[in-house]
Amino acid sequence: MEQQKSREILLCLSPVEVANLKEGINFFRNKSTGKDYILYKSKSRLRACKNVCKHQGGLFIKDIEDLAGRSVRCTKHNWKLDVSTMKYINPPESFCQDELVVEMDENNGLLLLELNPPNPWDSEPRSPEELDFGEVQITYLTHACMDLKLGDKRMVFDPWLIGPAFARGWWLLHEPPSDWLERLCQADLIYISHLHSDHLSYPTLKKLAGRRPDIPIYVGNTERPVFWNLNQSGVQLTNINVVPFGIWQQVDKNLRFMILMDGVHPEMDTCIIVEYKGHKILNTVDCTRPNGGRLPTKVALMMSDFAGGASGFPMTFSGGKFTEEWKAQFIKTERKKLLNYKAQLVKNLQPRIYCPFAGYFVESHPSDKYIKETNTKNDPKELNNLIKKNSDVITWTPRPGATLDLGRMLKDPTDSKGIIEPPEGTKIYKDSWDFEPYLEILNAAVGDEIFLHSSWIKEYFTWAGFKDYNLVVRMIETDEDFNPFPGGYDYLVDFLDLSFPKERPQREHPYEEIRTRVDVIRHVVKNGLLWDELYIGFQTRLQRDPDIYHHLFWNHFQIKLPLTPPNWRSFLTCCEQNGPGISQVRNIL
């Protein structure tokens, strides 16, 4: 039986204001809430939405380039929304905006309404019970990894404790506690939020599986399965549980948890509410708009990302506006916007305690010195100071091995034993990383037999399955410094008909040039991995003309590639049958 939706009135317009609505776009603000809305009038028809960009929550303003007066432009990343259709036009064919209900009253006034289903966490509500000291303890390990003691159960979030993430682009900033593996082995359950390798770390899980292959791991039922690549990883885990969104999962009489999806990336991102004796812990992880922006208020503890820098944009771009000065200013502005957004979110949700985490990585490989120097991150202390200015929320900047005692902190935030810091002299920051074993895995792909045959290019992109889109991409294999790799491939892909021309076509077409380190691109191609390894891992350098983000293209290669890798064994068999006549030309341009 469908649950009754609640009707929330967001904005009221008087009959005079309704009569004064102009044709096209109208901007309004609810002065009592400070929230902004857009109404679009076309003759007698009205459409309405929140003035919030679906990408990262930016504010829309009039798009002066749109002479028809139907589109608005986001002040954050220049995304554009056609309000007459409620579809985003930049990036093209990406998202649709959620519409609000427009109702006229008997006096010809207007109401903007939002219909919401009941909050799933309000089902079977529990009143908070008093916690004993030491009953609930949260220990920070690294990055997004927390070890939660909840009565006599232990739960771990997102264990990334060894090795790199995103091929070889990210390395741990913090030194994990020396007993991290014992902590993982003692866990009763592990939650992994999504498939990105700073949360789903196969090197870490391989160590764990060697000791406890049957440890219960819980993930959300995302469109792209979190463990889509488990078989190929070689990691032997036998107790992975995929659970539906928005339903309490009971662990014992005192402990339950609920996984929620992200509103912007529902195909892959999730967040979690853990509740023990009525006290909620909210972990929004990397979600852009967790649960579409609807979250529980006044939880005991909230944790979220804060740092920024988890993207190849704009540091890996060049040409046109992408000067060093423009990139530096963009990064500075974006980090400030992110800080303000997180501070406002915390102010709105009013948790008792807030912890910034999931941003403690560093581009430590020497070849990524440029990225490390330019990809500045937010300082958690700066965010916490901003939060303290605007609210009474207690903040916690975690250090590896530090433990927060929730019972003590809720009773008396000034209790000196509420947060136990690691012993004096404990190493906090890593100063060395074991690069070689992981780079050897990548380098092994460079000399693979697949790449002796230039027909791998057609085989790979046919397998990838992206076509019928007007975009031409030039792919160039490079050395460490993004110069063409001697004997490497340099080729064009025309995605309109999935052809591989020697020259750019005569028709009008958008164009991108993607330079990629040869070891990483060949490892990704060979294993059918997602292109986040390249893009978020800073392993590419990009130019595009015109300067447009091709959402359909990047979304396909970052999230929608086939779940099974290319059949290279069959490919090589065909190559052998065709004999030595197969092309071995590296540079086919």
From TrEMBL:
InterPro entries: CMP-Neu5Ac_hydroxylase_Rieske, Cnh, RibonucZ/Hydroxyglut_hydro, Rieske_2Fe-2S, Rieske_2Fe-2S_sf
Protein name, UniProt field: Cytidine monophosphate-N-acetylneuraminic acid hydroxylase
Record lineage: Eukaryota, Metazoa, Chordata, Craniata, Vertebrata
Matching PROSITE patterns: RIESKE
Gene3D superfamilies in alphabetical order: Ribonuclease Z/Hydroxyacylglutathione hydrolase-like (3.60.15.10), Rieske [2Fe-2S] iron-sulphur domain (2.102.10.10)
GO molecular function: 2 iron, 2 sulfur cluster binding; CMP-N-acetylneuraminate monooxygenase activity; metal ion binding
Function of the protein: Sialic acids are components of carbohydrate chains of glycoconjugates and are involved in cell-cell recognition and cell-pathogen interactions. Catalyzes the conversion of CMP-N-acetylneuraminic acid (CMP-Neu5Ac) into its hydroxylated derivative CMP-N-glycolylneuraminic acid (CMP-Neu5Gc), a sialic acid abundantly expressed at the surface of many cells.
Main location: cytoplasm
Top EC group: oxidoreductase
Pathway: Amino-sugar metabolism; N-acetylneuraminate metabolism
CDD domains: Rieske_CMP_Neu5Ac_hydrolase_N
Keywords tagged on the record: 2Fe-2S, Cytoplasm, Electron transport, Iron, Iron-sulfur, Metal-binding, Oxidoreductase, Transport
